[in-house]
Amino acid sequence: MDKSLHLDSVIKTHQITKEEKLLNKYKEKNKEVKEALEEEYGDNIYSPFNSGSYAKNTAMNTKFDFDMVSPFKRNAFGSKGTLKEMYEDLYDFLDEKYSDVATVRKQKVSVGIEFHSDDDGDVVKIDVVPGRELNQDQYSDDENLNLYVYYKYGNYDAGSERIKTNVQAQIKNIKDRATKEKESIRKIIRLLKVWKNTKYNYPTKSFFLELITIKAFDNKEITGNLWSKLETVLEYIRDEVTKDSFTLKDPGNSSNDLIDSLTESERDTLSYDMKNMLERIKDNDENIKTYFPENAKFLVEQKADNKYENKGNGFYSAPPKNERFG
Amino acid sequence: MDARLNKIQQVISELNGISIETPFSSDSDFIIVGKIKVSLDNSEEILIFDVRIYPEYPLKRLDTESITFSNSSFLEYGHVMGDGSICIHTSHNIDLKKKIEIDINSLKRWILKYYLNKENDNHYEHIILQPKEFNNIHFSYLFTEVDYSFNKNQFGFFDYSKINDGLYLDKTIANHIVQNFKDPFSRIITECKWSNSIKQIGNKNMGLFVFLDNPPTIRKKFIISNWEDLKSLVTQDFLKFLDNVQKNNQKIKGDPIPLLIGYKISEVEIHWQVAILEIGKFPIESFKENQIWKGRFIDKNIIWCITRNCSYNYFFGRGKLGDKITRSKILIIGVGAIGSIVATTLTRCGCTRIDIVDFDIKEPENVCRSEYSFLTGVCNKVDDLSNELFRISPFVEIGILDSGMLHFYSKILQGINNSKSKLEEPLASYDLIIDCSTDNDLMYVLNQLDLKRLITMSITNNAKDLVCSVEPKSYDWVMNQFENVLENDLEDIHNPTGCWSPTFKASYNDINTLVQFAIRHLNLKFSDDSKVLRNFVLKTEYENEFNIKLNEF
């Protein structure tokens, strides 16, 4: 099989534009939440903006939620207000406003709003990330924000106030690249997200996968067809992520090292998963299909031709090829 | 023979620190006997031992040494048997001279450690006893833990169930399971912690028990041999109880009745020995003292029989799976070849909560590659397997799920209303579900549910590969392995009764090899918190030698 052709199909079938109706529902809810925040916080908030995969053009249609940064002014919660107070206030507001129509949850650095499924069975999920400018009115100049860590993840302790970040810089990290490279990076990021989505509760954040992909492009000669590019990135992750000296600087804050979002054993696991993946695909190309599955929903049906002649379709006395035994 | 005798005599006499006290000679059974004096370099002491060298020497006799060193005046020291022989285990050597050197060195080590330094081992040394028969039959009583602390001098009844008779060397043995303990008024004070199935074994009979403050021993390790020696350990109340029991059971005169004698072996552990009494011939006599009934034991040998502590930690003491698996509530779906092997392995390895479900009937031709037996004929697989498992472990609770309900909620009601939650709710109570059904449709349905841990196991034809999914949502992965990755040769299949019932070809050995390999891998991963479980395939290869390779995904 042609692995690159398959990967192209993976990307195509995961394009967010395929889910136009759902995307529109997201956009609508997104607008609604944004306006509610602006109304509630008035002069104490800058304009909330999308920060996640949708903003970075790396979204996919099997699992998309919108991330919205909510940039508060330094004194929004009083000159002595804490980041915890900011986080709790936002949670209380969203919970009060949406608890009848959604499940509102406290998450690592965000407050999640998961709207109950509508008549089509669609669920819209928006994560609101509260951030506070470093000094009153400084945000317009530097776009820096402090986030609040609600509960422990990786090596960040719960309540360890402030991860300083600059979300705009994060977005630009991809956007400002040369078009050709930018496209390759986005494709690899999307593929890694498809892979992550095959796993249950995988500890690496999408942002981590974005940064490590970009770092691989910065440090390796990444050429050839799509598979060969992906392979080089996978090898890079396998080889580098367990090194003590490995860092993954947040473009929004160079003192924020994303490698700290993983524990030692999670780093080992990530490297080991890359190793297994490379080996298994080397063993047999077909294995690529379960690491990087197409979205069956948007797969164009192959025309069924004379299937009864194929061996192992289970039509006659022999069982079909996918018969498992035990 | 003389040459052997002379050689032994010569080798021993030339050893450092050894001199011959009584020259060696051969008795009528070709056992070479003599007496030696042993001295150690740093000690003034000289010890004398009787030496017996059996004809097998330097080879072993069954599981005992073929040389003994004994001196009955050393009984109070550690690792000395009732006949005064020193308990030594020595290294294998087929050369007579070297073997004598090794064995004498072992003896010297014993002298240094247990005679001169008077060391005590940390582990408990159980009482040494040689079981005797009653009326030419051995009796055994298997006991386990109870949630109860016995008091000093407490006595009463216990119930036991008879299980299989067998042969113990050349005599019959009657085996029994201790079920509960009762007070002298026959009210149950505690049940033994067996599985419910064991508790339900009928065929119950009554025995007596007494709990002592100290073990019934001489020199702390040899069990007393005469009833009279027990007199300082029991109370008049207990003797009166024995007297009453005998009077009230005259109808069964001549029958044996077991007396369990319990004692503490640590702060948290007790042990039981059993003596067999005969109704009508209890070893007690009574007399009046100031008009008051008094009893005492008479001068009579005690018939000690066999007890075994079968509590969970003893039963599985030699090896089990890790706690993560054994403490899990487990469901096995499909108990064909793989499923039945998984079930018996988990049971033998210490799991105690296993439910099984399968709609299928066991046929005689299933026996050759699964855990079923011929003698149970044609019957439901689940019933047959639950009996097999019950026979293995006295701690396993086996539940049989209704296969019709599973089918109804997973297939017939699929996608309708709340069928998902109806199916998910009971299944989510399991810590581990092992789907060995090889039913692709069921795997698809289970794949949609939110379960704690779903494992699927299946093989390709001829057991060339074993495919094991352990990650959530692995349906696509499993199907891809069978459809696109692995060779599943479907031309060479077994059609026992026609093309409507084709099955794969593989023997018990082929399948079990892979299943055990897979379980070992799962157990290692489960036991190591720093590792994550990944789907895997076991691939076999045979060119010059047989190989199994585990590929994780």
Question: What would your notes on this structure say?
Answer:
The complex is a heterodimer of chains A (326) and B (553). Helix content of chain A is 43%, strand content 13%. Chain A is an alpha+beta fold and 326 residues long. Chain A has a single domain (3-285), classed as Beta Polymerase, domain 2 (2-Layer Sandwich). In chain A, the strands form 2 sheets. In chain A, strands 1, 2, 3, 4, 5, 6 and 7 form a 7-stranded mixed beta sheet that branches. Chain A is globular and about 70 Å long. The two termini of chain A are 30 Å apart. With 553 residues, chain B is α/β, with parallel strands linked by helices. In chain B, 25% of the residues lie in helices and 29% in strands. In chain B, strands 5, 6, 7, 8, 9, 12, 13 and 16 form an 8-stranded mixed beta sheet that branches. An 8-stranded mixed beta sheet of chain B has the order 21-18-17-22-23-24-25-26, with helices on both faces. In chain B, helix 1 packs across helix 2 and helix 7 (337-348) packs parallel to helix 8. The model of chain B has no long low-confidence stretch (mean pLDDT 94).
Shape of chain A: globular
Distance between the termini of chain A: 30 Å
Multimeric status of the protein: heterodimer
Helix content class of chain A: 40-55%
Strand percentage of chain A: 5-15%
- The CA-CA distance between the termini of chain B, in Å, is 67 Å
Biggest sheet statistics of chain B: 8 strands, mixed
What letter string, H or E per element, gives the SSE order of chain A? Answer: HHEHEHEEEHEEHHHHEEHH
Mean pLDDT of chain B: 94
Structural class of chain B: alpha/beta
Name the CATH class of chain A. Answer: Alpha Beta
Number of helices of chain A: 11
The proportion of strand residues of chain B reads 25-35%
Number of strands of chain B: 26
Unreliable residue runs of chain A: 307-315
Give the fraction of residues assigned to helices of chain B: 25-40%
- Output the radius of gyration of chain A: 22 Å
CATH fold label of chain A: Beta Polymerase, domain 2
Task: Tell me the Rg of chain B in angstroms.
Answer: 31 Å
